[in-house]
Write a structure and sequence with these properties.
Elements lengths: L1 H21 L6 E3 L2 H6 L6 H17 E7 L9 E6 L6 H9 L4 E6 L6 H9 L3 E3 L12 H13 L3 E4 L17 H11 L17 E10 L7 E7 L3 E2 L13 H17 L7 H14 L12 H21 L1 H21 L13 H42 L2 E2 L2 E2 L3 H26 L1 H40 L1 H23 L1
Parallel strand pairs: 2-8, 3-6, 3-7, 4-5, 4-6
Antiparallel strand pairs: 1-2, 7-8, 7-9, 10-11
Helix pairs in contact: 1-15, 3-4, 3-13, 6-7, 7-8, 9-10, 9-11, 10-11, 11-15, 12-13, 12-14, 13-14, 14-15
Length: 500
């Protein structure tokens, strides 16, 4: 008991000391629920509301937790250009749609219009085609029409959004930023009503704003992973004189592009290699493991902030003291190996933060609930398994679209079609044997069973972690306590590194 309390106090002291010294300005963090996401689609046409609701349900089911940071800071009026990183295909713009109440017109690659269904959806949501040189048979000269449409929307006080990297990718850092966003912003703010009057701007110098948006996923393609939408600091665009072709000066474009890149880096996680990302993720999990317990789960926004901080500190440490960096990485790797050999994870060691009676009660209550709901969960799992497996297979088959990484887009789109098809097939079978009344009632019951199966599987996974931890504590108490001491030591080293 003394060891347990001692470790808890020391770990909290390290974390609180770090947080107090590096606490950023207060940010608003909102966990997006399904009702709120659907509600943001109100006021649109009936077709848009239906599509908005379908997208919201799909995202909320695929991702276990969705958080939005500083979404309240987005102005409710006036022209805005959102600039986003692009790690996850069509899922990225969908998150902006379901987190904002404002209408946003995205710029998307023109090849998406090749599909009739895709073209219908894109036109419904006023998505503008962008013709890229990397796409086959791209008519890049048509971009001037798209730019003119952007200017018109902005002059009407509307919002547009663009992915300035120009491609969806699996890289661990931002790709080189294209100049399109800067050209649109400067072109819109520099247009005049009267060419003979230098001060007759169609947009006032303070009416156009740029907002960087960072998207972060704990896993882009894993079902029931987590997603973070981070709205950055709003900044304005200073007007410049346009040339006779309506183009802004190249130097002004490059300066604004550099500013956009800096703003995007502030809201995204950037590491040079996958190995560096893995090291930082392991260090963050180790350092923040005392936060994760049965009672309290830290926000994904807090995790992301710590990842950004660790990434910056690791880069400095690798530059200034590479030997220390290698030693620390090796220690973390050895600790991870020791955890795996014991069959536990970093988070599961937090079982010692609770009294034994609390953990026991937690497990008993959930086991009882699982037993009660088991019949419904089994039925739901059996009915929905084919759709789930086929969606996963389609996600594996279509990992890319043209030159872009599809991320989880293929899985989610497949599930949007296969899940309702599953409900209709189930209802049709019941209709054949029991009549239309039972068939009609079976559809909501089938959906409910599927949801119960989903939540039950998550509870089982969580319980398995805690049961393994409790079993290790019971059978190999010396190993368990040694792992805790090692965690404390590594937390101290990482905490010292952050403080310095």
């Amino acid at each position: 008991m003394f060891i347990r309390v001692h470790l808890w106090i020391i770990s909290c002291f390290i974390l609180r000391k770090n947080d107090s010294q590096n606490e950023p300005l207060p940010e608003s963090v909102k966990t997006l629920g399904l009702r709120q996401m659907i509600y943001l689609g109100k006021g649109a046409s009936f077709v848009k509301q239906i599509i908005h609701a379908i997208i919201s349900i799909a995202l909320r089911l695929f991702f276990r937790r969705i958080e939005a940071v500083n979404v309240e800071s987005v102005p409710q009026t006036g022209a805005i250009i959102f600039v986003l990183n692009h790690p996850n295909g069509l899922v990225d713009p969908a998150f902006v749609f379901v987190s904002l109440s404002r209408r946003v017109s995205f710029l998307a690659k023109s090849t998406l219009y090749d599909n009739p269904i895709g073209a219908f959806l894109l036109r419904t949501f006023e998505i503008l085609p962008l013709y890229r040189r990397i796409d086959a048979d791209a008519k890049t000269q048509s971009n001037s029409v798209t730019f003119d449409n952007c200017f018109e929307l902005l002059e009407r006080g509307r919002c547009i959004a663009i992915f300035p990297e120009g491609i969806s990718h699996d890289a661990t850092k931002l790709q080189p930023i294209k100049t399109g966003a800067a050209r649109i912003a400067l072109g819109a703010i520099g247009r005049r009503k009267d060419e003979l009057n230098p001060s007759s701007f169609r947009l006032s110098p303070s009416s156009l704003k740029i907002i960087p948006v960072g998207l972060y996923y704990t896993s882009k393609t894993s079902f029931r992973s987590e997603a973070l939408i981070r709205y950055g600091e709003v900044f304005e665009v200073a007007p410049v004189a346009l040339d006779e072709n309506g183009e802004p000066p190249r130097e002004a474009v490059l300066q604004l592009t550099a500013r956009i890149e800096t703003a995007l880096r502030d809201v995204t996680l950037n590491l040079e290699t996958a190995s560096e990302l893995d090291t930082v993720l392991k260090a963050e999990a180790l350092f923040s493991s005392v936060y994760e317990n049965l009672i309290f789960k830290q926000t994904l926004a807090k995790t992301f902030e710590r990842l950004q901080d660790l990434a910056a500190r690791y880069k400095l440490l690798e530059k200034n003291d590479p030997q220390k960096m290698r030693e620390l990485s090796e220690k973390v790797t050895r600790y991870e190996a020791a955890l795996k050999s014991g069959g536990v994870t970093t988070e599961s060691l937090s079982v010692l933060q609770h009294p034994t009676w609390y953990v026991f009660r937690y497990l008993i209550l959930r086991i009882t609930l699982l037993i009660i709901l088991a019949p419904l969960a089994i039925v739901g799992a059996i009915i929905h398994s084919p759709a789930f497996l086929f969606s996963s297979l389609i996600g594996q088959m279509f990992k890319t679209h043209d030159a872009d990484a599809a991320g989880s887009s293929s899985k989610i789109i497949a599930a949007i079609g296969l899940m309702p098809l599953t409900w209709l097939i189930t209802g049709s079978v019941i209709w054949c044997f029991f009549g239309w009344q039972f068939a009609l009632a079976s559809i909501p019951i089938t959906i409910l069973c599927g949801y119960i199966a989903l939540r039950s599987s998550e509870t089982l996974i969580d319980m398995r972690v805690w049961l393994k931890s409790a079993w290790l504590l019971f059978r190999q108490r010396a190993l368990f306590l040694r792992l805790l001491v090692q965690r404390e030591t590594l937390q101290k080293e990482i905490g010292t590194m952050i403080e310095k």
